[in-house]
Recover the amino acids of this structure.
């Protein structure tokens, strides 16, 4: 078989075998609808409540603050629209950052068409939001602050505890998109003063199509999906039992030993990152040098374009990304890279490598062997590179 | 995303390289948009004796440059001028819809190089035909 | 093992083994994010597009009219809210029926709080909506008609083709909740002139947590879940590949031979239904005598209450429902049974038995043995029954 | 949904049946709400010598009737009057929150039956105490 080196763990991860094993009984045997009365349904109901407790315990919440959704995007949409529409009488102002995931940004843009006003906080060149900026942006019409826990492209980890402290003090609800942070960064919704938190199973070796929203008791939130009485009447739809069970098991495993697990990944990441910067001239590391996800490398190779790097890497069996997965098919350079101040042409030449459980040391060596050649090859075709060489 | 012909022209691009003392050079595109294409021509007796390219851009941009230079080699300048983006995309067996602009860039690159040659020959540059018509016709793979 | 007779197929169904087999490779092996560029992702992308074609072909749509969602509830919410908010300038009036699923009714109720006006068409004593009523309710401010294809509680199959003809003529978009109809009734969105259609995998031996919305080309529809560019920018969220693959396989199997499959189920259903009405006096059949789902029995046993019937049946290993699964935990009698004119106390005594692939002839015999005794037992404790006997 | 004690009192209800010539009968509830409870009392020397019930209703209603009649048997009328919904739910080891009203119904049924007896004895009926206070205290299983 062709060699496959998967370094796109931020896009998605495979379901861990223990997680799939936990899910399997609930497809065809323990398939009862938990809303029903009979014994078969009680098995499903208990499985759901067990998973709810697993999710709660992973983030320091209580189980009745956890609501299952179909993924990170739904959680983000629900938290933001649900807060906005439920608090319209109180205010119409939302604060977010310029480098959020599209599930947050496009939701905010939609709300702007519905009469809300949104402040998009800038970030510094490392992608950091300043808590002071958050504080200064809050007005008496502010009904929500939503800032992600960690960025999916450049991996920058935000000072959410400080933001939480400020928003709690000012009495403004604080939502954080923790889709990339779960399993990588220790999060405790109580200590971090988080009011709502989005997470998504497939980012930490759980199944796709399942996520959760943590909603602190007492937070005002309208529904996004109306209908049946599931999830204590707050999110309609027959429960995805295998998905929920898988999410519970996956988050339990992903958060069991965050320091131990991330140390291993970070060691590989550090060697790979140093190796790339060493071997390839005219390369910039994007994101923060230390406040970053342990598995994330985001570099810009000047004079070449990202898609062609990906294609050549793919020809060598290396899976990577340029910006977020969604933007790969688009023509726009990543809004995150532009927000940290990269010029367009440099942003176009970015490569994201995100390591994870599928990687071993050999993968690092392999990428360090292949990648510099790919860059060299593409540069040899690039008129920008030729001009720069000419110019030197 | 790309078909085999495109991938072949991307992985094994024909005619890459800067030409020394070209008779015509055309550079089109914009680094801000993520693609720049530079076409070099050597002209003998009104024919494209040699054509090479240097491209900064995505897979489709590189494959289009490769295919475009292939298509114009040996052609008269009039024939080369008539190589449309549709012809380039067609020779590549189709491009994804959002990548058709790369074949347009190739057409523009050829035109720019030819007119650069004509300018050097103190000839009137040829006029661009309406682009939109070509783009409408161009077929393409589904995304 | 204790005997288990599952007669709640309308609540949910187990995943068929062929469906699970089709899903399995996509959890841990072919797990790529279809938005990515590399070969691994193309496998996922092809699997999604193959499933999209399967769903489309099952209902006579074209693949690019199919959008995957997290289930029937999301599809209903999306169709209704998406149409309402996108057409606000054109009008503010929605027509539906009194016996829709809560995913439709609660969504309509929400829209009423947002300034829309909703007509809830009455039904006759069999649960039928009259196409003439639809026609008369349409005004020049009507932006949507939503009437379900078949009812989940009493099984009544609506004249959607006539409704489709009327709405198409009047230029009003027509949505139908076909969650219960798929696999039971032949549906062709072109011949039936349907503009939007909701379906949900777990009702036809597919997985839970996955569904689809058919949206006819040219129909104006806003997004419900904003974010990444998935589903041609209309429904954000990393695709639930195993779920989508399972949905495709399940709908293909469920619609391969509808007449043959339903004939088998209907034969069992008819024998069971006749047997119950024969054995238990003071029993009414709810729903339409012939225009009903082939697997549905809904009866009211006078003088007793539904939950206690369910509990006693459960003690004998029989899984059934009283009204919709969601209402089992509520104290309200079913809005559907009230809408067909049942007095409250009769509605409280309703039992729904929905047959399916898990049943065999022996199950019919077993239920015919147990159920009359259960009813008798509860009636012997009922002061209403005593009073009625006294009164005769 | 229900614990074992509730299920036992539902599946094997104690004291079911109409009483011939009862000394007091109380009927509470409403068929519209899906539950009617009828409590029959036989009183000897100010004590509940026998108590039976007939109930139309859900599992919790039947179990509450069964438990309530058990609790008041042998008690003086004053003691029986003091059996609150909380006591009934407690003896059942808890009821789901949305089912607590069934235990309230049982308390009301006992009160109605006792007052029916007092009325027949031409005694002043006893006054109901505030209900809300009881309900607040009542514990229960999670749903
Ligand atoms: C008619 C009808 N519509 C919608 C739904 C909701 O589907 P889901 O629970 O899959 O979201 C159901 C099932 O619960 C249903 O029967
Ligand atoms: C930071 C962030 N937020 C939200 C999402 C959306 O999650 P999902 O695709 O599971 O809906 C993603 C992943 O795509 C993400 O990385």
């Amino acid at each position: 078989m062709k060699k496959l080196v998967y370094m796109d763990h931020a896009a998605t991860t495979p379901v861990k075998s223990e997680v799939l094993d936990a899910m399997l009984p609930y497809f065809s045997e323990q398939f009862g609808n938990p809303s029903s009365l009979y014994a078969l349904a009680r098995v499903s109901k208990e499985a759901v409540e067990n998973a709810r407790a697993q999710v709660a315990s992973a983030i320091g919440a209580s189980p009745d603050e956890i609501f299952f959704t179909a993924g990170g995007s739904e959680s983000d949409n629900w938290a933001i629209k649900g807060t906005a529409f439920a608090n319209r009488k109180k205010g119409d102002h939302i604060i977010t950052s310029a480098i959020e995931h599209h599930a947050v940004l496009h939701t905010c843009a939609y709300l702007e068409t519905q009469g809300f006003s949104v402040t998009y906080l800038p970030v510094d060149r490392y992608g950091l939001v300043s808590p002071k900026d958050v504080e200064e942006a809050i007005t008496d019409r502010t009904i929500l602050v939503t800032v992600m826990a960690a960025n999916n492209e450049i991996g920058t980890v935000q000072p959410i505890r400080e933001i939480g402290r400020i928003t709690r003090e000012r009495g403004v609800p604080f939502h954080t998109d923790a889709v990339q942070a779960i399993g990588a960064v220790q999060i405790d919704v109580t200590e971090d003063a988080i009011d709502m938190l989005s997470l998504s199973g497939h980012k930490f070796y759980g199944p796709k199509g399942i996520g959760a929203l943590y909603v602190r008791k007492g937070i005002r939130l309208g529904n996004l999906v109306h209908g049946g009485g599931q999830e204590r009447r707050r999110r309609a739809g027959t429960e995805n039992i295998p998905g929920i069970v898988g999410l519970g098991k996956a988050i339990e495993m992903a958060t069991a030993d965050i320091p131990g697990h991330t140390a291993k990944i970070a060691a590989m990441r550090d060697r790979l990152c140093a190796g790339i910067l060493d071997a390839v001239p005219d390369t910039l590391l994007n994101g923060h040098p230390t406040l970053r996800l342990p598995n994330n490398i985001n570099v810009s190779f000047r004079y070449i374009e990202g898609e062609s790097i990906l294609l050549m890497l793919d020809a060598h069996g290396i899976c990577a990304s340029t910006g977020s997965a969604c933007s790969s098919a688009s023509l726009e350079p990543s809004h995150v890279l532009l927000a940290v101040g990269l010029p367009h042409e440099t942003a176009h030449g970015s490569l994201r490598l995100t390591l994870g459980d599928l990687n071993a040391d050999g993968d690092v060596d392999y990428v360090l062997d292949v990648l510099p050649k790919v860059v060299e090859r593409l540069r040899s075709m690039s008129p920008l590179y030729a001009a720069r060489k000419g110019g030197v | 995303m790309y078909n085999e012909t495109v991938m072949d022209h991307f992985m094994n691009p024909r005619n890459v390289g800067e030409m020394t003392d070209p008779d015509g050079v055309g550079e089109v595109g914009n680094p801000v948009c993520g693609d720049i294409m530079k076409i070099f021509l050597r002209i003998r007796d009104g024919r494209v004796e040699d054509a090479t390219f240097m491209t900064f851009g995505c897979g489709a941009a590189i494959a289009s440059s490769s295919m475009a230079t292939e298509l114009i080699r040996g052609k008269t300048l009039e024939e080369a001028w008539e190589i449309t983006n549709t012809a380039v995309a067609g020779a590549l067996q189709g491009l994804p819809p959002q990548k058709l602009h790369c074949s347009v860039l190739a057409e523009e690159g050829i035109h720019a190089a030819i007119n650069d040659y004509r300018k050097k020959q103190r000839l009137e540059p040829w006029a661009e035909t309406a682009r939109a018509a070509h783009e409408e016709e161009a077929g393409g793979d589904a995304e």
Notes: Confidence is low (pLDDT under 50) at residues 130-143 of chain B. The beta strands of chain B are 24-30, 35-44, 47-56.
